[in-house]
């Protein structure tokens, strides 16, 4: 991806460096990652002494990319945050670009799971997406970072992401046919409008807080917002009432 074409300032270690991580840490690839209050202690979680290294690195990388952007993220900081050495990060993902794409893949897999488990009623569909969005603020930070930094001709994972959105546009079309959403509106643009509604508090929490005078992680905001979404869905399905 063009957004991360710039080389990491650290030289990429050879794979045999990762394989010999035991000389710097234990056999799992955990090394003496630098202790940095901004990037975690570099120590494994006490509650899970042998977590899956790939998952732990992806989780740490998502936070780093969200906070610093693609160009500002360094592999050594991801490694420190995850509690593994840098050689293992390179062994799993090869490059910063490969790591970003893997993080996005993992995030999209989570969104696909939400899509598969959506409820039947329009109001509860809106609420389900809102809950998923508010529960994963790093997803929208990643998307915003991509929008700000991406300089390539196409977004990362274009085809996979288009398929994900096309499935939802088809759902909108079916809901229009069943009378649960207004007919006469082009489904893809109606989907964009609904996407804007259910994502704004997670995407721009400061704006939502200024408008509502409630923080988006407050129960009062979430209860009120979800009550609104259910009512909004009712009006969409019965616009003349």
Descriptive report:
The protein is an all-alpha fold and 241 residues long. The protein has two domains: 10-98, Homeodomain-like (Arc Repressor Mutant, subunit A, Orthogonal Bundle), CATH 1.10.10; 118-237, Tetracycline Repressor, domain 2 (Orthogonal Bundle), CATH 1.10.357. Helices cover 63% and strands 0% of the residues. It has helices spanning 15-19, 53-72, 75-82, 86-93, 96-116, 122-135, 137-149, 158-177, 187-203, 205-212, 219-237. Helix 2 (53-72) packs across helix 5.
For the structure shown, list the relevant keywords.
Arc Repressor Mutant, subunit A; Tetracycline Repressor, domain 2; single chain; mainly alpha; disordered N terminus; 11 helices; 241 residues; globular
Topology (SSEs and partners):
Elements: H1 15-19, H2 53-72, H3 75-82, H4 86-93, H5 96-116, H6 122-135, H7 137-149, H8 158-177, H9 187-203, H10 205-212, H11 219-237
Helix pairs in contact: 2-3, 2-5, 2-7, 3-4, 4-5, 6-9, 6-11, 8-9, 9-10
